Amino acid sequence: MVTIRPALIEPEPRSPYVAYLNVVSFGALAARTIGPLYPGMNILYGPNEAGKTTLAAFVAGVLFGWEEARGRKNTYRTEHAERSGSLIFLEREVAEGGKPQARELSRVRNADGLKGDLTLVSDIDRETFRTMFYLTSDELRSLRHTTDITSKLLTAGSGTGRSPAHSLEQVQEKIASYFSTAAGAEHSIVRLNAQKEDLRRQVTQAAQEAERLRKLDREYHELAPERQAMSERLAGLNRRVENLAACQAAVEKIGGEREALEREIQRLRKEEGRATAEKEGLEDSIGQRLAHLKSGEERALRDKIEELETREAKQEHALELSRSNALTSQASYEVLVETYDDKSDQRRTHQSRQIKIALSVILPLVFLVSGIPLFIYGRSRASLTYMALGLALILFALLLAAGAVLLMLRPHRDEESQAERVKDAQWVMLQDKKRLEATVRESEELAQSIAATLDELGLGEAEGSLRRARSLLDEAKDVRAEIALASQKAQAARLRLSEAQDRLEVLNAQQAQAFAKAGLDESVDEETLASELERNSLLRDELLSTFESLNRRFGELEQILKEGRNFKDFDQLKLESQQVNTRLNESLDDLARLLLARRLLEVSIGTWESESQPEVYRQASRFLSLMTAGHWTSVRLSEEGNLQVSNDAFVTRDPLHLSMGTCQQLYLSLRIALLITAQNVGRSIPILADDILVNFDSERRKGAALALAELARHRQVILFSCHQEIVETLREADPEAKLINL
Questions:
Q1: Which of 424, 445, 462 is the last residue of a domain?
Q2: What is the C-alpha separation between 554 and 542, in angstroms, rounded?
Q3: Both 317 and 445 in a single domain?
Q4: Is 104 helix (H, G, I), strand (E, B) or coil?
Q5: pLDDT in tens, 333-383
Q6: Distance (Å, whole) CA 622 – CA 633
Q7: How sure is the predictor about 104, in pLDDT bands with cuts at 50, 70 and 90?
Q8: 691 shares a domain with 719
Q9: Exposed (0-12), middle (13-18) or buried (19+): which is 140, by Cβ within 10 Å?
Q10: Strand order across the 103-107 sheet
Q11: CB-CB neighbours of 681 under 10 Å
Q12: What are the backbone angles phi and psi of residue 689, rounded to the nearest 5°?
């Protein structure tokens, strides 16, 4: 029997406590540190929207994971960063002169889990924390699964590896699995019994089926030799019929093909004669030389013709150029002669010369006549200006007179150049005529040379025309193509004729081979062959009918035996039956052990609850009396396991019939009693209380504050409030409470 020790009332002196809240990013809070906090009561005071509820949700989130988005609930997600932060824990007491050792729990993403010293939360689960350690005014209105929570919290301090109440719950689940009919319940006694009965029936059926299959197997093996012999006989008849049928078909086919080949041979001989005659006629039409001209020789002829064409084109160009130059020089000479003989031009030239001479004489006289009087006048007047001007006019007149003398003495150069140009034009004209005559002679010699070359090349029919020679080569090429086609036709006809003759010999050999394969002489006629084929076909059909009946029975037996091999054999089913019996016996033994364990746990928990649970309800009664100023004095469980409260007047009520404030005071009293009694649960986890006293009147608020102060002597308590009067009441109840303004 498990021995359970009562929970300690005094707190463990070295249990860590939360000293700092480091908020990295959570809701509206970012890069903020709250602390230091004390091991006892801590009051976080601030107005609305100061972040009190956010801080409470932050502590819960770090310990047991951030809230997931469901509906329109605020999960304190931030827009540009992950929710993250940490809690710093310190020891309650340290050695003299020592420093407190910090232990940290941090969280960023739920998928990454909680980081740090996980032993700080190893003695509490999420449900217990949400129910007992995270208090709001709404949570104080009920306590879900009161009996289960009480048992788990009380037995958590039993000194065993895990809570006996939790172990009892697991034992109950395992016992239920042994009576489950679900598919996944491998150790279910119900399922194992059903499997045992099913295997027993299968063993009986397998024995009967094995005996039937043995009889069929004997019949199957007896039919096999008979079937084999009949199959060989039928195969021999099939081969005989096939050979006779093949011989008959071959004789018919060869006879028809032989007649067709003989007709084809006659036609091919005629076709060969026509192709040969056509070839000879084409060769005569163009001559033997062009008819048998090879491609290399033709390319050489075409290159020669191209060379002659180039020379001819150059000569024609030279002839055209000579003619053009002769005509141009003759025209230039005639124009110059006509221009030189023009009398009117000579008169105009003579008049122009006379005008120039007259001006050369008159102008110097005018300047001289003007300058001399002016010089004399200036001299008589002793005026240097008039003298200088007169002297300048005289000098200018002398210069003009000297120019006129030179002009009259110089011969007329235009007349001389005109005569020279006429002589040059006449010489050029004569030179171009001589060149034209030489070019004409060269052209005639080239034409004769081209005609002689074409005659040598066998293209005399072109009569010296290179274009005609090229046309003759093109025509000869087409005729050679026709000659080649005619040769190919004749050759193809000869080839097909040879093939037809060879094929005729092959047909004769095939016919002889077909008769030999059928075991007949070549002299057998078609009627005898048909009669032999009919007789063997009738024998085969009779044997085939008998063989098919035997084969159907053989196939039925083979299919039955094949399906029989897919069944579980007798030995395998017996083995499975023994395995199921073994598993059933093991399940029965395990069930017996589980039933014994359940009984021991129930007795142990009953003993513990008989010792510890009265203490819980005694403490709850004391706290409720303190909160209600002695109006309600007793908290207990009814015989049906329902929570009830009573007063001194022996009035008993269920929580549903209490006011909202009294109901909250009842459940707060019960929680404080449980948390004080079960100190081994969540030893390092603070109690979070978010404005839980707002529905209490001033008198009952004082009593609740005293109860919370007593709880703070056992556990760390963090209260959040926005009411100044509540803060003052709490500080009156616990003067050592730590106040932090947000």
A1: 462
A2: 19
A3: yes
A4: strand
A5: 777 777 655 555 556 666 666 676 666 677 777 777 777 887 787 778 777
A6: 7
A7: very high
A8: yes
A9: buried
A10: 29-34, 17-26, 84-90, 103-107, 115-116
A11: 24
A12: -125, 115
As to burial, measured by CB atoms within 10 angstroms (0-12 exposed, 13-18 middle, 19+ buried), residue 238 is middle
Question: What is the pTM (predicted TM-score) of this model?
Answer: 0.45
* 682 and 708 within one domain: yes
Domain contains 238: yes
* Exposure string over 532-544, b if 16+ CB within 10 A, otherwise e: bbeebeeebeebe
The two three-digit tokens of residue 18, written as one number: 């939360």
Calculate the CA 346 to chain-centre distance.
103
From the CB of residue 351, how many other CB atoms can be counted at a distance below 10 Å?
A: 10
Task: Quote the distance between the C-alpha of residue 131 and its chain's center.
Answer: 50
Residue 62's nearest CA partner among 11, 100, 106 is: 106
Torsional sign, CA 302, 303, 308, 312: positive
Reduced to 3 states (helix: H, G, I; strand: E, B; else coil), residue 720 is strand
What is the tens place of the pLDDT at every residue in 577-587?
777 788 777 77
Which tokens belong to 517?
């394969």
Q: How many H-runs (helices) and E-runs (strands) does the chain carry?
A: 16, 13
Distance set, CA 409 to CA 350, 351, 353, 570 (Å): 15, 16, 12, 160
The verdict on 557 and 634 lying in the same domain is no
Least confident of 83-97, 327-341, 560-574: 560-574
Alpha-carbon distance of 96 to 74, in angstroms, equals: 46
Provide DSSP, 603-625: HHHHHHHHHHHHHHHHHHHHHHH
Identify the domain containing residue 225 by its residue range.
Answer: 190-281+514-519+532-562
Assess whether 717 and 732 both reside in one domain.
yes
80 with 36, same domain: the answer is: yes
In a shared domain, residues 200 and 165? no
Give the pair of three-digit tokens for residue 107: 């969280």
Q: Which is nearest to 299 in space by CA: 459, 449, 473?
A: 473
Q: Contact 640/632 with Cβ under 8 angstroms?
A: no
Q: Residue 27 is part of a domain; what is its CATH number?
A: 3.40.50.300
Q: How many domains does the chain have?
A: 3
What CA–CA distance (Å, rounded) separates 655 from 624? 13
Q: Which tens digit of pLDDT belongs to each residue from 64-83?
A: 999 887 667 778 888 778 89
Residues 178 and 253 placed together within one structural domain of the fold: no
Distance CA 134, CA 130 (A): 5
Which residues 6+ apart lie within 8 Å of 532 measured at CB? 244, 520
Rg (CA), the chain: 70
Which two three-digit tokens encode residue 740? 């932090």
The span from the first CA to the last CA of the chain, in angstroms, equals 53
HSE of 243 in the Cβ direction (CA atoms, 13 Å)? 16
